Amino acid sequence: MRTKRTKAAPGVQETHNLRATGMNSLPPLRDQSWPQITSIVRWGTLGAAAVWLTLVAGLGWWSSQRMISAELDRVASSAEYEAKTTARVVDRLFTELTSVANMVASQNQVVQLAARYRTDPPGFAELTRQERAAIFIRDPLVRKVGDFMRNLSNDLRYARIYMNNLSYNTVTASNWSESFSIVGQIYTGRGYLTDAVREGKGQLFGIARLNQSPSYFVSSRVEDSGDAPLGSVTVKFDAPDMAHYLTGRHVALIVNRQGRVTTASSPSFMLRNVAAMLPPDTLLPSDGDEELGDLVDVRPMAGAGRADQWFVDGRPYLLRREPLTNTSYQLLTLAAIDQIQPMQQRHFWATGLIAAFGLAVVFLSGGAAIHLVDRRQRAEQDRILAISQAAERDLTIKVRERTAELTESNASLKAEMDQRRLLEAKLRQSVDSVNDALAQQREFVAVVSHEFRGPLGVIAVTADNLLLSLRDSPDAVKLRIAKIGRTVNRMSMLIENVLAGDRLNMGLKPFMGDEAFDFNEVIQTVHAGLDEASAARINFVPGDRAIVKGDRVLLELAVQNLVLNALKYSGASKPVIVNLAGAGNVMSVNVIDSGAGVAPKDQELIFTKYYRAAEQSVSGSGLGLYIAREIARQHGGDLILTNSGAAGSTFSLNLPIACPCVATG
Hints:
With 665 residues, the protein is of the alpha+beta class. The protein has helices spanning 10-25, 33-105, 108-116, 129-137, 140-156, 191-199, 239-243, 340-469, 475-505, 519-528, 532-537, 552-569, 624-634; strands at 160-165, 170-173, 201-207, 214-223, 229-238, 251-255, 261-264, 298-300, 309-312, 315-323, 330-336, 515-518, 538-541, 547-550, 576-583, 586-592, 638-645, 648-656. Among the domains are: 82-336, PAS domain (Beta-Lactamase); 513-656, Heat Shock Protein 90, CATH 3.30.565.
């Protein structure tokens, strides 16, 4: 025997669902999310540690670079200041040497002595230096000028001042009376003496032959009253004495154009060559017999962010170059930056300590969080157990209460459904009544319009016949007959607009035909259908052949509405312009009236059905522009107000041009 399966009542089914929902909503005795939370805490601790290390490393590197850059800027500023200050001092010293040489060379007694011994007599060069010196010293003027040079060199702390003739023989010197006197010494081939005789001045750094002391030689030409050279005066200044002017915090070097150190504040650099630190375009080959000096171990500091950091003899320095005025030397200032590497090491250890401290805090916090999670897990399990027991007791009570409520709700729901069915039946009856009334209204409008068309046609024909038969009647009679004709035309136009608007409101496509034709013919047809007075006011400007496709009758109605609207609002005698223009695949019929224009607030509303502007005194139905726009849109075009002002308005009827452009019918 088959058992018939019955469907449970809604109330009983709801009760079962409630019981199942209540049981399922109880939290489990052992929540599986706590182990996941513990794992998340562990991974979060590791992630925080990684982020902390990355952050500390990045900030440590950034801070270290900032502090090292600040220290380098401080050292560079100090070196820059010291270089400029020392350069000014050395420039003044060289200027003083040149000035003293010029002053001595211009002394009258020096000029007199130079003129007396302008060149050596024949055979003088074969004598020994002592023999030549004895001949010169016998001259009182030689001794007098030599004493003047000695006193001046002692006052100015110069090594020596001496005078040479054009044979480069030393005529007198500040040490003429001493055992190591240079009087009688011939300095043939010395470039600074040759430059002084030829160009007026000369200078050289070299090693003195007598005492092997590195010295600066500055020479000036001795001239007679006619600017003819007679010899030269040379001021010698020892490099060790020059070094006293280079004292400062940093190492100062004076180097020549070959890169040789001629004077140094640090003896370890003296007479050595640092050409590697000079720009290549400032170096010149040696023009004398002096050596270039031993090369200093110079290397640019690899990886440095600045181009002025060098390793010099294994020590890091920051370099500043300063050219000296009117000399062939330049000043180099080396600022030691030994403190940078220890500073970097201190920054590294400080960053490491901060990172270690942060890691300790992160791992301790992670351990504390895991311990807290375990405690919360045990407490949550106890709470869930208590809730489950209480929920089980409450569930039975709620099931009974809910069963009673559902029974009552089912009864109410059944009554409400019956009431809704009754209301739906009444609503359908009301909708059917409205639709019947609308259908009757449309049928009535169609019948009335049809009944009106016949009499109106008879009246129009009668009016035309009267106007023809009473051609010789008084003007007043003609005006009344013409008024009858205009009224009939207006009524016919109103009927056509009402019928077209009714079809448009129904959502029906109002096409009665579908043909291709030249739109110039439509405008001519509308123009021909006007009365004589209205046609005389129309200025029709035909355009090129414009083939459109659609319902010719409806398009004539649209153009007729635009033209009549323009005639109505232009006044009794003002003209109306109608032109046709084509642009691409669109043609436009522009109707330009001579009215007062359309107010800005009414420019969109005038295309609304039955809308009439409040300030207009001209009668109308408010359907013409609405019907014309809807017909244009049904044909894929539009009607827009393109211009409006005190001189009139322009309405443009735009329609697509059919392709191929072949007219039919």
